[in-house]
Design a protein that fits this description.
167 residues, 7 helices, single chain, 3-stranded antiparallel beta sheet, mainly alpha
Length: 167
């Protein structure tokens, strides 16, 4: 903020920028609600999972994607599925390796490819965590919406999924 700007000036500037960018503020409230819902749900699901199982939601996400893929994925595919950056996934997988929940190995016949595989301990941890996580999803999300709202929400959100690669 400039030295001479007053809070009222900044507020008016912001309001003008919003109005110019989104005439009639179309969609601003829906966008804000989506961001708020996502942030609060993820925070609460992470807290509940951590308190009940000691596992972070992001770690659960990695383990769940591996399980869904039959227990093993290349790092590049895992990064795409978890929506983590490659560096973020590398750190997370290293932590999971240290905890004995996954194994890393070079892909056969491909010196650059790295495979991540669930261990028996990872499967056991996932077995403990899935019910806790899904009970939270049910309580915080599914039970608060009726079938029609769930269907509309799914249809609407599928329209705005952006195909991108996280770097």
């Amino acid at each position: 903020m400039h030295e001479n700007s007053t809070p009222g000036d900044v507020t008016a500037l912001f309001e003008r920028l919003v109005e110019d960018s989104l005439p009639g503020r179309r969609g601003v409230r829906a966008w804000s609600a989506l961001l708020h819902a996502h942030a609060t749900l993820m925070r609460q699901l992470d807290t509940d999972l951590r308190e009940d199982t000691g596992l972070r939601l992001a770690d659960f996400d990695v383990l769940a994607h591996l399980a869904d893929a039959g227990g093993q994925l290349r790092m590049t595919e895992l990064a795409a599925r978890t929506l983590l950056s490659r560096s973020g996934l590398t750190r997370r997988v290293a932590k999971l390796v240290d905890e004995g929940l996954v194994r890393r190995a070079n892909a056969a016949g491909d010196g650059r490819g790295v495979l991540v595989t669930l261990t028996d301990a990872g499967v056991a941890r996932l077995t403990e965590s899935v019910p806790v996580h899904l009970q939270g999803v049910s309580k915080l999300f599914v039970e608060r919406l009726d079938e029609q709202e769930l269907a509309v929400l799914e249809t609407a959100l599928r329209k705005v999924i952006v195909d991108c690669t996280f770097g």
